[in-house]
């Protein structure tokens, strides 16, 4: 019994160390989707992980015994991971993101990794080399909008990141605040989406998705009223 208690204490201590290192990270294993369904061999990764904060440019799963988390890793010549607000899918940023590669490795292989900010400026570059090696970009502020990862005979697996910054839902004029001046734009978004797009070309209409169901419709009205007039 004492041995069991000591082991539990050791695990708790380890977990404590991980938590102290920063906010919890989300890990994409390319085997299971957030809704619990299994990745299929013919799938292409696009928006399946959007609800946890990342979208991809269509790489496929590759069944491989070398995967860090089998059965799959993701493989394509170029894999782009774009970070989004988990509620609405609006583009967002994170402060920490990285990936492991599969465990079978010879010199020359690896993942050539580039981090970009919202404006498309490169803000980091690392060559991830070594079987199973994990490489991440970390910044004091959330500035990473996307990762471009070039697979050089290696797949990516266990992509890890801190949840992207939530967007300000209800800010339909994109001035950085939710005020009565957003009422008109919100109504326009509901009744005339194309008119809204024309009037606010730099805003994303999905800021009106108050209930996080990935739709902008009448079901968002109550949440909007609560945002403008907090109870
Ligand atoms: Ca506003
Ligand atoms: Ca909605």
What features would you highlight for this structure?
4 helices, 2 domains, Jelly Rolls, binds calcium ion, 11 strands, elongated, 231 residues, disordered N terminus, single chain, 4-stranded antiparallel sheet, alpha+beta, 5-stranded antiparallel sheet
How does this structure look, described?
By secondary structure, the chain is α+β, with helices and mostly antiparallel strands. It contains four helices and eleven strands. The strands form three sheets. The chain has a five-stranded antiparallel beta sheet, with no helix packed on it. A hairpin with an 8-residue loop joins β3 and β4. It starts with a helix and ends with a helix. The site of one calcium ion has 8 residues, from loops.
Helix-strand layout with pairing:
Elements: H1 2-20, E1 25-28, E2 54-56, E3 60-63, E4 72-75, E5 78-83, E6 96-101, E7 110-116, E8 122-128, E9 134-138, E10 146-152, E11 156-162, H2 183-191, H3 193-199, H4 221-228
Antiparallel strand pairs: 1-11, 2-5, 3-4, 5-10, 6-9, 6-11, 7-8, 7-10
Bound molecules: calcium ion (2 copies).
CATH class division of the largest domain = Mainly Beta
How many domains make up the 3D coordinates? Answer: 2
Relative helix content: 10-25%
CATH architecture of the largest domain: Sandwich
Element order: H for helix, E for strand: HEEEEEEEEEEEHHH
**Total DSSP helices:** 4
């Amino acid at each position: 019994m004492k041995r069991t208690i000591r082991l539990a204490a050791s695990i708790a201590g380890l977990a404590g160390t991980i938590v102290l290192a920063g906010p919890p990270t989300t890990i994409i294993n390319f085997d299971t989707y957030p809704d619990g369904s299994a990745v299929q061999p013919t799938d292409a990764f696009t928006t399946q992980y959007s609800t946890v904060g990342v979208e991809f440019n269509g790489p496929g799963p590759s069944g491989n015994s070398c995967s860090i988390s089998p059965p799959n890793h993701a493989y394509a010549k170029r894999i782009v991971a774009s970070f989004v607000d988990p509620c609405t899918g609006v583009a967002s940023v994170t402060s920490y993101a990285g990936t492991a590669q599969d465990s079978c490795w010879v010199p020359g292989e690896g993942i050539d990794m580039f981090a970009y900010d919202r404006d498309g400026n490169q803000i980091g570059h690392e060559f991830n080399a070594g079987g199973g090696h994990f490489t991440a970009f970390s910044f004091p502020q959330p500035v990473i909008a996307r990762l471009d990862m070039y697979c050089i005979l290696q797949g990516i697996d266990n992509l890890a990141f801190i949840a992207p910054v939530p967007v300000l839902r209800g800010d339909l004029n994109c001035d950085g605040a939710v005020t009565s001046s957003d009422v008109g734009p919100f109504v326009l978004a509901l009744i005339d989406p194309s008119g809204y797009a024309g009037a606010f070309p730099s805003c994303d209409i999905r800021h009106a998705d108050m209930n996080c169901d990935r739709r902008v419709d009448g079901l968002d009205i109550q949440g909007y009223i609560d945002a403008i007039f907090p109870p």
